[in-house]
Fold this protein.
Amino acid sequence: MQELDIDVTALLDQMSRDLIQKMVDRPNPKMIGIRTGGEWIARELHKRMQLPEELGVIDIAFYRDDFSRIGLNPEIKPSDIPWEVEDQHLILVDDLLYTGRTIRSALNEIFDYGRPASVTLVVLLDRKACRELPLQADVVGMQLACSQKIKATGPDPIKIIISEPVEVTV
Amino acid sequence: MKARLTAPNPQLNELGKLKHLLTLEGLKQHHLTEILDTAESFIDPNTNKIKKVPLLRGKSIMNLFFEPSTRTRTTFEIAEKRLSADIESLDIQTSAAKKGESLLDTLWNLQAMQADMFVIRHAESGAAHFFAQHVAPGVHVLNAGDGQHAHPTQALLDMFTIRKKKGDIFDLKVAIVGDILHSRVVRSQIQALSILEAREIRVIGPKTLLPEHPEVLGVHVYHDIEEGLKDVDVVIMVRLQNERMKSALIPSEKEFFKRYGLTEKRLALAKPGAIVMHPGPINRGVEIDSAVADGPQSVILEQVTYGIAVRMAVMSVIMSNAAQLTQYQAEQEQAALSEVEMENAQ
């Protein structure tokens, strides 16, 4: 296994610059992080962008499409969106975009709060080749291959280690 | 070989998790806190509103109320709708049972309609246990009140309300006042308070409305309400269950109010900020004064609201446990298969 320690700070700096540019036509955006990893990333981006409204946090446990197979996550906590969603430009943040099912659940939950004007999707890491649903992020920190494994710890500091199997030739 | 000292709890599955909710008796603290914590997640922390979620979409729940009920039945129905389940509320009182059909035949007929969960209220103690014994594997039973035996979801919503208002149940002194003898709610409340380790549980009422040896329940007994309310954090009033009384157990309702009714003056003996609860329906001027029922310390209507979140939590936890059991069994089966394959390969 080959391990790679990611410079998360540099990625977040770049992502916030890309995001500010992306949101030029979408005034007064409000940010939502998906618990838990997405919330960590969202807090950092929220700070860097100096958004005036409080950060929203959602827990997608009640919206997962595998409830009848694996049941509830015992660590479930209430979602907390402290402002109106209706007609707002939202920035939805997660740490990893993988199959796309988490984002689908998050969108379903957001729409239960109201109909936003738009949703911009931001992820730190994107495993595009593993996608099972037709979703893509607007701002991505780093692209990964399906074979790469991720170990994340946080929230302060956020540490990401990527590892991948090394081919051994004889 | 050692003999088994206690029968296995019929409401727990092979993983020790709830598959039915029939009573709180025999449950552990983690069973209760899991439900209370899940209920917390159904409430929007900013508005106290309870959200609709798609958790039980495609699941079929039947509400069987063999005994009249407004509050419990309505909150169960709302809870089921908020979980996006398909629901059917059957007016059993005026249907099959009235025509002489046995409970077991009623159950089998309803089961043939593909229910995933039954919510049952019955005037006979043990009716929910009976249902649970006879349902097919994979079908769940919730007790919405059986005779004088148990009303576990009411007790859980009471615990949830106390937790919301007081932070924790541990270290609280709780007084339960009124007709203790006939109340299934009180039995379940005492069990819940004991499991959650309340500091002190007091029951207050005349001897005729208390069980013969109340101390075996682990409670302190008071016949003088003024003595019993001193320094308590929570006052739970319960209704006179006239329909269950077989003889005159109190001189009159007026006399009962004079001796045991909760008035502002009496409430002042409890701790400042003590909360007043009542599982309903309330009889103003019989067990509680209107000034107290509608006063600033009353949380009676919040109990009703929280009842929806708690019932949503009970149903989701039970269905989640079923999913986890199926997953576990599939893994076990897979492991056994792999072992056979390994043996065959050797």
Q: What stands out?
A: Chain B has two domains: 20-150+304-325, 152-299. The interface with chain A takes residues 34, 37-38, 40-46, 51-55, 58, 316-317, 319-324, 326-327 of chain B (CB under 8 Å).
